[in-house]
Amino acid sequence: MNKKEITEIKRQFTPERCTITRIGGCYVDAEKEKRTQFKEAFFSLPEEETFKYFDLFKKTLSGTIGRNLMTMEFPLDTEIEGGTQEFLLRLRASGLKDEELLEQFYDRVIEAYEYPENYLILLAHGAYDIPGKANDDTEMFDASDEVYEYLLCSICPVKLSKAGLSYHAEENCFGSRVRDWVVEMPQVGFLFPAFHERSTDLHGALYYSRNIADLHDDFAGLLLGCRVPLPAAGQKEAFQALVEDTLGADCGYETVMTIHEKINEMIEEHKDDPEPVELGQQEVRRLFFESGVPEERLEHFEEQYQEVAGENAVLMAANIVNARKFEVKTPDVVITVNPEKAQLVETRMIEGRRCLVIGIDENVEINGVSVRS
Question: What pLDDT, in 10s, does the model give residues 235-244?
Fold first, then answer.
């Protein structure tokens, strides 16, 4: 799913556009015991409660594609009877009215999700009558020919509010604040099925993780049966290792700088596109070649890529370079440069020593003090 498709679904979480039909929930304690469960029609809830749920659901569809949000495809074996995708289809078809299916879903989440404290499993069922669109992107609500029926799961920590003082209006005094259990923003969640090209995609799901360093691989694997891609930091590390392994002795400053400049150019060229810039095995190979990597260094590139990044792995350009800064680091010095001015830093041999040289054309400050260049 791209940015526009995700935004279109998020827009449904308002009172005017609401497409949620029912919600269900299960409160789980730190010992993985179910404390309470509920299920009810969404429109029967008090209005002020619905706003709180809208916030939780919107957060489950928030973040950066490739970092917090990832579209994952179901392996074929999950779509046969008894598979994870087939189970989700039955759960969706039930409209959250089948208590046995709900119980099975909660049990699967509890088994898959490792969390040491209390949490709430929140599940919503919705039906979005997809409006047609005119050439100018104007929605035509009388031109719909498909209903997108979906499940949205949000898993939210439940924590005791902090102790403190509060003002008691009835007694007109200050006193200890009553501590209660508060549902916090979701840690993980998913949207099933995926909403792709403004249509239902039964073969995919949108996965959310609040923590980009820990994508809860086991949870996604056990509950959805899907393989989670490398996290953002892992993609960056894999790319760095790939550059070093591929270039070897030819891993020079100019070549590495050229690679980063070309990636930043890609990001800039496609900054208005709904799809993030992705680099697969062939794209990375072409990038290296166009950056001056010798052909002989690319002879075993396919094997190196699969070993470092994984088979069929895709790297997000925004994850592997920092478009806002270009950093040169030694054990004692760190130089941060605007990527557009990276060419100001170069390497030279001076009096027999290899040095970093920074061209100075403008004013220079040292700890805030302007000095003469």
Answer: 888 999 999 9
